[in-house]
Amino acid sequence: MVSQSVRSDAARNRQALIEVAARLFGSAGAAGEPSLRLIAREAGVGIGTLFRHFPTREALVEAVYQDQVRRLTEGADHLLATHPPAQAMRRWMDLFSEWLATKNGMIDTLRAMINNKQLGSAHTRTELLAAIDKILAAGRSAGDISAHATSEDVAAGLIGIFTVAPITSSSEQAARLLDIFMNGISAPTTGDQPLPSG
């Protein structure tokens, strides 16, 4: 029978591998995806421990991907509990940029997994739009986010920003563009004049 401490150690090792892999994928840049040996070493475990948890690179990538999506969806709740909705939305955009940076570091494996139908993107998209919707709804109730902004608008805006200002090369520009975008979806304060629509 497996003891509680062995199970706890195994859970800790698994989470450490996911966190280290996410960090290394997020900083991979032009060097390409980090090796599994490097991930194991940085997590302080042997390569055998890594393979016990994740028998293939694809298994590790999927675990990191799902963990990042979970952080984004749970992040919406946490941010709303600790910040006004407009601030929560802007901070959530930073979480989204971290998720994209991690995805970029494992893009080759992700692309292959999607092509082989090992990983579906429709469910992820639904989860992310639901997280955005939750913040927007709170912002509309509080009056600090425009009633006209939709989750689809926010998602499209974020993708547009990170297409022209990739995280790895222009993070300062990306942050500036996110601030401008956030201004655009914030509810006008007293005295602000709406921009002409035509």
Indicate the low-confidence ranges by residue numbers. Answer: 190-198
Number of strands: 0
Backbone structural class: mainly alpha
Provide mean pLDDT, rounded: 84
Order of helices and strands: HHHHHHHHH
Keywords:
198 residues; mainly alpha; Tetracycline Repressor, domain 2; 9 helices; 73% helix; elongated; disordered C terminus
Structural description of this entry:
- The chain has nine helices and no strands.
- With 198 residues, it is mainly alpha-helical.
- Helix 1 crosses helix 2.
- The chain starts with a helix and ends in a 13-residue tail after the last helix.
- The C terminus is likely disordered.
List the helices and strands and how they pair.
Elements: H1 4-26, H2 36-43, H3 47-53, H4 57-82, H5 85-105, H6 107-115, H7 122-142, H8 151-164, H9 171-185
Short description:
The chain is an all-alpha fold. The N and C termini lie far apart (71 Å).
